[in-house]
Every structure is written in C-alpha cells, then in structure tokens.
Amino acid sequence: MPTPSPAVPRAARRARVAVSTVFFVNAVLYANLVPRLPEIKDRLGLSNAELGTAIAAMPLGALAAGLLAPALIQRLGSAKVASFGLVLLAATVACLPLAPAWVALAGLMLVAGALDSVIDVAQNAHGFRVQRAYGRSIVNAFHGLWSVGAVVGGLLGTAAAGLGVPLPVHLAVTGGVFAVVAVATYRFMLPGPEDAERTAPAEPAPGAGAPRRRPSGRTLLPLAALGGLAACAAFVEDAGSSWGALYLRGEVGTDAATAGLAFVALSVAMTVGRLTGDRAVDRFGQRRVALVGGAGIAAGMGLALAVPSVTTTLVGFAAAGLGVATLVPAVMHTADELPGLPHGVGLTVVSWLLRVGFLVSPTVVGLVADATSLRVGLLGVVLAGLTVLALGRFLLDAPAAHDDDAAAGPGTPPPTAGPATAPF
C-alpha cells in the first residue's frame, strides 16, 4: 500500500490496515473451502446438481439478507458488523463438513451467503470512512487485497488437501485463526458515528430538530444508474469465471490446459488494476478511469469475439479485467455519497444489485448461447462496456474527503485545490 501522507491521522492509518485485513480475511474464508468441495460431495453422496443447488443457496442468502445491512450498521456500527460478522462466517464455514445431509449443507450455505452480504456492505462502508479520513482514493487497494485473499485461500485449501489434513480439522483451525484476526481488527477501526469523517452540516435552529433526508428523483435516478453499472461489472467478471474456458475450447479449439487461461488473464489483470487503481483515480478521477475502462472492456472483448484466437482471447479478457477493476469500488463510493438517503442505504442497494447481476448473468449468456452461439452470448460483455460509457457520467470524479462537496451527489466536480483532492 502507498505510504500515507504525514497529514493523515495515526488512527486512520491503523484503521486502513484493519480494513485491509478484513477484506483479506473475508476472501480467504470461503476460498479456503473451494478446493475441498469435492470431498463434501463424496461424503454426502451428492450428485453434481445437488452440490450445485446447495452452493446456489449462497447467493440466495445474500439477496435475502443483504438489504438488512443498513439497519445493522446504524445500530451496531460498520466496524463491529464487519469484524464480528467474520467470526460468525468463520464458524459457519467450519460447520460445513459436519452437515449430515443436503438440507443442512444448503442451509449452512444460505447462512454463509447472508453473512457475507452483510459483511461486504459493512467492510466497504468502513473503508469509505477511512478513505474520507485520508482525503484520497484508497478503496481500490482494499478490493485488490480481497482478490489476493481469494488466491491465498485457494492455495491454503489446495495445500491442506494435498497433505491429507482432515477437512473438519482444516476448516476448524483456519476458521479459528482468522476469527481471532478478525476480532483483533476491531480495536483498530475508526470510532464514532458512521458520518464522523464527513463535513458536518449546519446546525439546525433551536427546536427545529434534525433535518430529514428524503429520497427524490435526483437521488433515485443516479441510484438506478449505479445499479446498472454494478450489474455490468457482474456481467464482465462472470464472463471470465463461467464462460472463458468454454469459449477457448468450443469457439477457439484449444486444449483443456490452455482453456483455463482466459479466467487467469481476467483475474490477474483485475487484481493488478485494483492494486494500482488508486493512483489512477487520484490522478484522473474515478469517473474518467471508469469511462476508459468501459472502452477497454468493449474494445478488448470485441477483438476477442471478432478475431477468435488464443492471443486475442487472452488480450480481450485481460482488457476486460483491467477495465472493470475499479468499477465496483467507484459505484459503491458514489452510492455511499448519494444525498437524501440514510447512511449505508445506497451502498447496500448497489451491493444487492451487484449480486443480482452475478445470479442472472450466467443464465442470460447461457440462454443466448444455446439459441445462437457462445460468441453471440458474450456480446453481452461488449454491451456492458458500452453501458459503462453511457452511465459512467453518474460516478463521482474523486474521493469525498473533508470538503463541502461530499454531499453534492454524483456529477459534482471536486475542488480544484486543497490537499484532499488530487489534480487531474
């Protein structure tokens, strides 16, 4: 992570490390299980469809519980929800090998998905608090560390399987260790109310009471646009994980070993883009970065589909991964700054719609591919890139810090001077 400016408070620097750890642990916990799912399948004697249905309970749980996040954050605070939510998630994942039947397995997956959705909103909400304290973009690095955590978790699970560690022991030990780490992060999070780092509004007249924040068309239209951008991000990311290998094998004609490189190209490019994206956002503004990313998605995947070969496909998926890298953090940040909404509501809505996108996109591409071809189905990724170009104007230009533009809403240019914003 970049070295913070001396002007950044020590509490914010410590909170940045804590939030980074939360993102990392959140990714590790489930990724740690993935390489060992075949063992659960064999122990319970499940068919592929039964295992797939049980896993599908996770996004269903996320959709069911995701909208509860604002109430929990307002009651308990984002720090507590994120840190102690990870403890509950670790316990739930550790119980999965103990499930006696499919019903129990699906139920635990449902709970894991519900917890993950609430934790996701809380960790991002606290990450934006830290970003406001820093006065510059840092949230992309959090998402980059989530990607790193997913890789580390997969490697841990693979190593445990290779060493023959019993699955219940493996998940109990890793769950216990990461639960302790999650609890330890809580004391380093930022104290106080969720809006403590925002510019304080003018004091109301005595006896007037606190001003009410009411959604209006100026709030709901940008929120709908941000939801569309979130769905586009899901469409692009899912293309690599669900269809990249099938495209290389079926449309390009590669072998099985080469087919997996499409997903690798997208994932590596997206991780690199997230780890380096904060500097680009500070220099050019997150709106401009997102617009360039949308153009890269459309052009890269357009090339891969127009000229199907191993090289063009890998270049296309890498361009899509790089183009989408900063989009989700930018959408979440803009939604978190929307005026007229209680704290956490905008962030929760776009997070929920992002999960809807992940649930719907494989079905849409699959139906189009069955009716025509996978090349036609993946044109949806090109359309997603063009949609980012059309809706990207709703994104804020730069991170909101200690300035009066924090509540101005999407499309308001940041100040041109002052230490809280970078020129672009």
TrEMBL record:
Task: Give the transmembrane region(s).
Answer: 15-31, 51-69, 81-99, 143-163, 169-189, 219-236, 256-277, 289-307, 344-368, 374-396
| Record key words, sorted | Membrane, Transmembrane, Transmembrane helix
Q: Where is the composition biased (Low complexity)?
A: 201-210
Q: Which residues form the Major facilitator superfamily (MFS) profile domain?
A: 220-424
Cellular location of this protein? Cell membrane
Q: Where is this region: Disordered?
A: 195-216, 405-424
**Source taxon at top rank:** Bacteria
Q: How does it sit in the membrane?
A: Multi-pass membrane protein
Q: Which InterPro entries match?
A: MFS, MFS_dom, MFS_trans_sf, MFS_Transporter
The record ties this protein, via PANTHER family, to: BYPASS OF STOP CODON PROTEIN 6, INNER MEMBRANE PROTEIN YBJJ
The name of this protein is: MFS transporter
